[in-house]
C-alpha cells in the first residue's frame, strides 16, 4: 500500500518530452511548433514546462494574457512568446518584455500602432488573428482593407505571423466546416500577403489540427492539450502520456451506519453499513462540486472508490467499503493510471476544464 504525506500534482517532464516528440513526428522538419503554455501550462507549472520545451527545441510559445508572458520571461524563458489576447492597458509590459501581441481587431491594431510609434519602435513583431468562423476573436473579410492600409502607413510594426483557429478539428463529423475554415483562412491570408513585401509565418492548426489536417500545417502549428497528454480521441490518447498526476492522501476513515449521512446537505445517505474516507482537497483545489454524488471515482490501492455526497471546499469523501486501506494511504484522482478524460467525462465536462482547474495551493512536484 502506497503511503502519502499530502496532496500533490506530479508533473512528469519525461512524459512531456514523449508527447513533444510524437507531435513533432507528425510534422515536416521545416514546420515550426508553438507550445501553448497558458493557464499555468494547462494547470501544471508554466515555467518548468516552458524551460523543458525550450531545451527540446520548441520554436515559439503562446500564452493567453500578458502577465503569463511576463512571468515566463522572469523565469528565464527566451524564445518568442505570442500573447493571444492582449489588452491595450498592457502594451507597455508587452514591449518591455519582448512579447509578441496577437492583433485581432481594429481597436487593438489602431492602439498598438499608436503605442509603438510613440515608443519609436521599428518593425515590432505582431501576429494577425483572422476570424474564419469561430466568431470569438479575429478580423473578418470586411476588415482586411483597413488592416492593409494601416500596415502601409507605419513602420513601427511588422507582421510576423497570420493565423486563425479551428473550431472543431477534433470532430471528424465537422470536417466540412473545418475545410471551410481552411478555405476562408487561405482567402483572407491571400488578401494580406499580396500587399506585404515579405512572407509572414502562417499557422492554423491546434493539436487536433496537427493530427487530422496535415494539409493545414503551413509554416507553424500550435499545440496545447497534446503536449499534456491528450489527443481528443481515444486512439491518439493511447499514443500520448499524461504529464500531470494528481495524488492525495486518506486523512480519516469513518464507519457509517445504515441511515446515516455524509457531508453537506446530507447528499449521501448510507443504504447499508459503509466505510468512508476523507481526503484533503476540495472545490477550492479544483475538484469541483460536479464530481461529487458518485458521478466519478478515485483510485485507492488499485481499486475504484466513488466520491460521495457534496464535495466540500477543502475536503471530499469517498466510499472505501470494499477496499483494504488505511489512513495515510495514497489516493490517485487522475494521471497515468487513471485518465483525467474519464474522470471529467463522467461528470459531464472535459479534461481541459479539470486539469486547468487545479488550484495553485496544490503543491507541484516536478519529476525529471
TrEMBL record:
Similarity comment: family membership: Belongs to the alanine racemase family.
HAMAP family per the UniProt record, alphabetical: Ala_racemase
Record-listed substrate binding positions: 136, 313
NCBIfam families from the UniProt entry: alr (TIGR00492)
InterPro entries in UniProt: Ala_racemase, Ala_racemase/Decarboxylase_C, Ala_racemase_C, Ala_racemase_N, PLP-binding_barrel
Tagged with keyword GTP-binding: no
Physiological role: Catalyzes the interconversion of L-alanine and D-alanine. May also act on other amino acids.
Catalysed reactions, as listed in the record: L-alanine = D-alanine
Enzyme Commission number(s): 5.1.1.1
Single biological process term from Gene Ontology: D-alanine biosynthetic process
Superkingdom as given in the UniProt entry: Bacteria
Molecular function GO terms recorded: alanine racemase activity; pyridoxal phosphate binding
Cofactor: pyridoxal 5'-phosphate
Record protein name field: Alanine racemase
One GO location term (cellular component): cytosol
Gene name of the encoded protein: alr
Chain positions found as N6-(pyridoxal phosphate)lysine: 38
Source species: Haloflavibacter putidus
Residue ranges annotated for the Alanine racemase C-terminal domain, each copy included: 243-367
Pfam families: Ala_racemase_C, Ala_racemase_N
Lineage: Bacteria, Pseudomonadati, Bacteroidota, Flavobacteriia, Flavobacteriales
Amino acid at each position: 500500500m502506497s503511503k502519502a504525506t499530502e496532496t500533490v500534482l506530479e508533473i512528469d517532464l519525461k512524459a512531456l518530452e514523449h508527447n513533444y516528440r510524437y507531435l513533432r513526428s507528425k510534422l515536416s522538419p521545416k514546420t515550426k511548433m508553438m507550445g501553448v503554455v497558458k493557464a499555468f501550462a494547462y494547470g501544471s507549472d508554466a515555467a518548468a514546462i516552458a524551460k523543458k520545451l525550450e531545451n527540446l527545441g520548441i520554436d515559439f510559445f503562446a500564452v493567453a494574457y500578458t502577465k503569463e508572458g511576463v512571468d515566463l520571461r522572469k523565469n528565464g524563458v527566451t524564445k518568442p512568446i505570442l500573447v493571444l489576447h492582449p489588452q491595450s492597458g498592457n502594451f507597455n509590459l508587452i514591449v518591455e518584455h519582448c512579447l509578441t501581441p496577437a492583433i485581432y481587431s481594429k481597436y487593438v491594431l489602431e492602439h498598438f500602432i499608436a503605442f509603438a510609434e510613440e515608443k519609436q519602435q521599428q518593425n515590432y513583431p505582431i501576429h494577425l488573428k483572422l476570424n474564419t468562423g469561430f466568431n470569438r476573436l479575429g478580423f473578418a473579410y470586411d476588415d482586411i482593407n483597413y488592416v492593409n492600409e494601416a500596415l502601409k502607413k507605419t513602420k513601427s510594426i511588422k507582421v510576423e505571423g497570420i493565423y486563425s483557429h479551428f473550431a472543431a478539428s477534433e470532430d471528424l463529423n465537422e470536417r466540412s466546416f473545418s475545410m471551410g475554415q481552411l478555405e476562408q483562412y487561405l482567402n483572407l491570408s491571400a488578401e494580406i500577403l499580396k500587399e506585404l513585401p515579405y512572407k509572414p509565418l502562417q499557422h492554423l492548426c491546434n493539436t487536433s489540427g496537427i493530427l487530422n489536417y496535415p494539409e493545414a500545417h503551413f509554416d507553424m502549428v500550435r499545440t496545447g492539450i497534446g503536449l499534456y497528454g491528450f489527443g481528443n480521441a481515444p486512439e491518439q490518447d493511447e499514443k500520448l502520456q499524461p504529464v500531470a498526476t494528481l495524488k492525495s492522501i486518506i486523512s480519516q476513515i469513518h464507519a457509517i451506519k445504515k441511515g446515516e449521512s455524509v457531508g453537506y446537505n446530507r447528499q449521501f445517505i448510507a443504504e447499508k453499513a459503509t466505510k468512508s474516507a476523507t481526503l484533503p482537497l476540495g472545490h477550492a483545489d479544483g475538484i469541483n462540486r460536479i464530481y461529487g454524488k458518485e458521478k466519478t471515482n478515485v483510485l485507492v490501492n488499485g481499486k475504484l472508490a466513488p466520491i460521495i455526497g457534496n464535495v466540500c471546499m477543502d475536503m471530499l469523501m469517498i466510499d472505501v467499503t470494499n477496499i483494504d486501506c488505511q489512513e495515510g494511504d495514497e489516493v490517485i484522482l487522475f494521471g497515468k493510471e487513471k485518465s483525467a478524460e474519464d474522470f471529467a467525462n463522467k461528470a459531464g465536462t472535459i479534461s481541459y476544464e479539470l486539469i486547468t482547474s487545479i488550484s495553485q495551493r496544490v503543491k507541484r512536484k516536478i519529476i525529471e
